[in-house]
Amino acid sequence: MTLTISEVDYAHLWQESVLEQEFCNSSEVMEVCPQALGTGYRRWVMLRDIDLLIHDYEFHQDVQVKSSPGEGGLEIGFQLQGGSYAKRYAGQNFVQNGPHDTDTTCERAGEHILQVDIHLELDSLKSFVPNDIEPSLAIQQLIQASGQYPYTQVSETTATMQFVLNQLLNCPYEGLTKQIYLESKCWELVALRLEQLNGESSLQTGLKPDDIERIHEAKAILTRNWQTPPSLLELARQVGLNDYKLKQGFRQVIGTTAFDFLWHYRMEQGRQLLTESQYNVKEVATIVGYSKQSNFAAAFRKKFGMNPKVYQSSQACLKKDPLSSQKNPFSS
After folding, report:
1. What does the alpha-carbon distance between residue 229 and residue 22 come to, in Å, rounded to a whole number?
2. With CB atoms 3.0 to 4.6 Å apart as the test, which of 183, 251, 272, 308 could cross-link to 47 if both were Cys?
3. Which Pfam families does the protein's record reference (predicted)?
4. pTM of the entire predicted model
5. Helices marked H in the chain — which ranges?
6. Over pLDDT 90: what percentage of the chain?
7. Which distant-in-sequence residues (6+ apart) come within 8 Å of 213 by Cβ?
8. Residues 129, 135: contact at Cβ < 8 Å?
């Protein structure tokens, strides 16, 4: 059964569930997922000229949210898990500005949503542009969208972006240091996303649409065959490109090399296996392609900033005490 609700009523449901506890301070607000919808939370962190929003929840039933025309604003978002929300999927990011039209979004039951949204003032972005330097055409289009026409652009989240997102979600600090750290990570993500926007703007004249489609097909092949992936030459043959064009195009379109994409994907699969607790660390290392547990542990620490055994133990504790994740979702 699907619940259909207006955007206004949907927002009110979340706002009514603000968690009034001592860990909520003037700069942070925790919205616990309404019991009628599911479990999890949305956490707002108010920074200087930036509102950071962390989505981390799962619905019991399909939910359709009908939005109405509005003024909108400048927002950059990163979908880490799940993906039906606003028709964006895990591994994608978006930048949008300007008014939005009536639309309907749907989130599926049982799908874990993990998303990071950065809302910022347009004037704050403009303040970085020197008076004597004209911004790139792509940035001009983004800025001019405000109040005139809607602007939305969706891209693949790069390995560098994923690394910064992991740092943000696992902030090790508290108080003032935490505020400064989170703000710096938000601006780093904004910078990476704008640079990606500039690159893809110039990319439009560098690769044919058919080439870009073949590169996305190559990514899908690696995703499906991550345990036994083809070589670069074999992958190029399967998608009908020469290995040089595939190598260069993969970096341009996906934002990283095919090798790095596969490494990050394997690490993410390992993380999910550790979360499920069906396997021990040694077994997970073997599944994701490491003959030595120590090599897997080193790779896991490089990507997620902690030892896999520590991570698995922390996830087991969260399952016993779900509220502990809501008290400090940024802690490592």
Report:
1. 49
2. 183
3. HTH_18
4. 0.61
5. 7-15, 122-126, 137-144, 159-169, 175-203, 209-224, 232-239, 243-254, 258-276, 281-287, 293-304, 308-320, 323-327
6. 37
7. none
8. yes
